[in-house]
Design brief:
By secondary structure, the chain is α/β, with parallel strands linked by helices. The protein has eleven helices and 16 strands. About 20% of the residues lie in helices and about 30% in strands.
């Protein structure tokens, strides 16, 4: 993974306890503690007090109000979903984040454009303000957000740069970036070039990144689209079928590697139509794994098979990503993308006690892509989530 946001950031903070007796709120032992930031993969324990990690080690001495032992589980930093739809109201895609994300291992989630400037206050009060899950927002460039069944950019006037910038400036603490989806569905008859041009204008005025959905290269060359994106921008839906995703003729599209080289990141965004096993395998054959793994979890997924981040992680593992690559792509890397590392996305002392316990189930199951193709493979399952020191059982 060849962009600066991922390199040169090793912190070595795993150590053995000095065995001075200390009282903790919670002590969790697991068969494996894994932290890509600390290059940690050992049996051990994590001690928590007042919602923070206070000690990490193989031999922690002290008493705790509650002690838990998971000898056959993996204890990780809390999982981070960089593209989903956490919204308790008005978004036509929104799902309740505590029930559908936190209970399934995700402690932090980025909302992909659920709210635009017109519904921002409602989103802050009714979703961010009440959720135990940490929710950040990629505000939709469209002032109407995802509030209607029509495309959010069907009316170009809704892509109001001034209104978007004003909304960001008064609520900046909750906003990571700006969501711009140039797809046919979102734009309808609107020229996607105008939409991206306005999105970049708003992003440059606010000095924020874009979360960008590519237009298919039949309509608009990837060279031109990716040339306009900037270091730190994130391309999502990258494993859609041709001609929508980053693979062309079973090879990585020629414009994509140079975009990564200049610092653009590539995210999965599984969703209902954006994960094709054959595309993923072609990308891996060319040495191009995603930077981040995300679900694009939305309302339409609740009636079908369980659709959560550990399941999407399992699909990437089944087709060739290493365990370390997968776990990094849901912890350390998205935490850095969000500008929240190392307080989240790591197992370091004096950081937020956001943790996820996973079990690797060796019994193969049919993993299904959005084209109804299957791969039989083991999968990760959530056992427990810890958010700010509080327990949430799957």
């Amino acid at each position: 993974m060849a962009n600066g946001i991922l390199d040169g950031m090793r912190e070595d903070c795993y150590y053995k306890s000095s065995c001075q007796m200390t009282n903790f709120d919670l002590l969790i032992h697991a068969g494996r503690l894994i932290c890509p930031t600390a290059h940690l993969d050992n049996p051990g324990s994590v001690a928590i007090r007042d919602g923070r990690i206070v000690e990490i080690g193989q031999e922690i001495c002290g008493t705790a109000r509650q002690s838990l032992d998971f000898p056959d589980a993996i204890l990780l930093p809390g999982l981070i979903d960089l593209h989903a739809h956490p919204a308790n109201s008005y978004s036509i895609y929104g799902v309740e984040p505590d029930q559908h994300m936190l209970m399934r291992g995700v402690t932090t989630v980025l909302s992909q454009g659920d709210a635009g400037s017109e519904h921002l206050d409602q989103f802050l009060h009714e979703t961010i303000g009440v959720a135990k899950t940490q929710v950040r927002l990629a505000i939709n460039l469209s002032r109407i957000g995802e509030s209607t069944i029509g495309g959010c950019f069907e009316n170009l006037a809704d892509a109001d740069v001034d209104q978007c910038v004003t909304a960001i400036e008064r609520t900046r603490d909750h906003i990571w970036g700006i969501a711009v989806n140039a797809s046919r569905f979102c734009c309808r008859n609107t020229d996607p070039r105008d939409v991206l041009r306005r999105g970049i204008d708003a992003a440059e005025q606010t000095e924020l990144p874009l979360l960008y959905g590519l237009r298919c290269w039949h309509d608009w060359s990837f060279e031109e689209q990716l040339d306009q994106l900037r270091p730190g921008d994130v391309v999502t839906y990258c494993f859609r079928s041709e001609p929508f995703g980053i693979v062309k003729d079973n090879r990585i599209h020629p414009a994509v590697p140079s975009a990564r080289d200049k610092g653009i990141l590539f995210d999965v965004g599984h969703g209902a139509g954006s994960f094709d096993f054959s595309v993923v395998e072609a990308a891996f054959h060319d040495g191009f794994p995603p930077d981040t793994i995300s679900t694009d979890l939305q309302l339409r997924h609740l009636d079908g098979p369980t659709h959560d981040l550990p399941l999407v992680m399992s699909k990437l593992r089944a087709v060739g990503m290493t365990e370390n690559e997968v776990l990094t792509a849901v912890t350390q890397t998205p935490a850095r993308v969000l500008g929240l590392h190392p307080d989240i996305g790591s197992l370091l002392t004096d950081t937020c006690a956001d943790l996820t316990l996973l079990r690797w189930n060796e019994q193969p199951v049919d993993l299904i892509d959005t084209q109804s193709s299957t791969r039989s493979a083991p999968r990760w399952e959530t056992l427990l989530t810890v958010r700010g020191g509080a327990l949430f059982h799957a």
